[in-house]
Amino acid sequence: MIKRIHDSLAFRFPTLILKNLVTYVMPNKLRSKPLAPEFNFVMLCGSKDYALLKQALFSARFFFKKLPHLYVITDFDMPERTSVKIAKCYLADRLHIINADECIKFHEENGNSLIKAFALQSPMGLKIAAIMQILAIGMPVLYADTDVLWFNDPADDIARFISGEVNIHMSPDFHPGYDFHLIKAASLGMTVDPPYYNAGLMFIKNITEEQHAIMEKILSIIIEMHKSSNEIHKNLSEQTLFAFIQKQAGPSEMLPDKYLLFSSDQFDIISTWQKHVVARHYIGHIRHLFWRDAFFKRIR
Question: How confident is the model at residue 290, as a pLDDT?
């Protein structure tokens, strides 16, 4: 009985109390910082994700010693009032809000018909479209989902990623969260061997012509699969695509003890993390921990 009460409290208290505290009560002051000129920062924000985005960006603004240009790509049904709120979450001279229609138009004008088609099919397709649009600027991209919190500055790691030979670094995953239908259809068997990768946090220096050709081949298969299936596995197809490219490019240098994705603390009421942790990704079933850690990060 006591354990059930404890576990229920661990799930409910962060979402019912701490979420409101960090979203509406605690200050969200913007402080100017030097520009990080080496890369661009990309996030995709759905119409229901503003509260997550606000805290994710607060953690980046607090821990990054230098702030890069940020490109927030919003989904198709983003209300204008939410875009106005997003504009208050980052330094105005470095924030670029691009709506989904503008992203689609970019790829249409540049002949990227498969990226456009997948973006119209799925939010995960829009994610690929967003990343590829900003990569086209000609600079490396740091991509993060809205449910990623930062706990340290990634600058040293990013400098190493840029100077290294491997051009894509995905965050580690504790399980193979892939679309196994796609793996079979596209012969991506090497993806299922450990280490496993997650597309919620990535650093991409560039995409080579060979990798772009691989993407086109896989995207054509994804699009056909999505036409005939409503199964939830299709939400993992973009992660499967990037993981296959990662496997071919070489091992990611986002180390699992610095870029966290785990769920063993899902019933812990108090945050516990090590000083060397750079970021943590809070996937669906541990989303309540996002609000727990966002709160305890503020009061430390």
Answer: 94
pTM confidence score: 0.94
pLDDT at 5: 65
Which CATH fold would you assign to the domain 34-249? Spore Coat Polysaccharide Biosynthesis Protein SpsA; Chain A (3.90.550)
Quote the pLDDT of residue 42.
98
pLDDT for res 271: 81
The full 3-state SS of the chain, as one line of letters, equals CHHHHHHHHHHHHHHHHHHHHHHHHCCCCCCCCCEEEEEEEEEEECCCCHHHHHHHHHHHHHHCCCEEEEEEEECCCCCHHHHHHHCCCCCHHHEEEEEHHHHHHHHHHCCCHHHHHHHHHCHHHHHHHHHHHHHCCCCCEEEECCCEEECCCCHHHHHHHHHCCCCEEEEEECCCCCCHHHHHHHCCHHHHCCCEEEEEEEEECCCCHHHHHHHHHHHHHHHHHHHCCCCHHHHHHHHHHHHHHHHHHCCCCCCCCCEECCCCCCCCCCCCCCCCCCEEECCHHHHHHHHHHHHHHHHC
Please identify every stretch of the chain with a pLDDT value under 50, giving residue numbers as ranges.
232-233
pLDDT for res 293: 93
Q: In what order do the strands lie in the sheet with 95-99?
A: 95-99, 67-74, 35-45, 141-144, 196-204, 168-173
